[in-house]
Specification:
With 43 residues, the chain is mainly α. It has one domain. It is 79% helix and 0% strand. The protein is globular.
Length: 43
């Protein structure tokens, strides 16, 4: 899941490369910010 999210971040211009995108995706999963975004768009 982190690899796909990381690639998406690269395509969106948020991350500089796949490794950066994966690191950002993992951080978002660990700190709960990914869940918060999902919750905000699903209600």
């Amino acid at each position: 899941m982190a690899l796909n999210a990381g690639a998406g971040l690269v395509v969106a211009g948020v991350a500089d490369g796949i490794a950066d995108g994966v690191e950002r995706a993992i951080a978002a999963l660990e700190d709960g910010s990914a869940a918060a975004v999902l919750e905000s768009i699903s209600t």
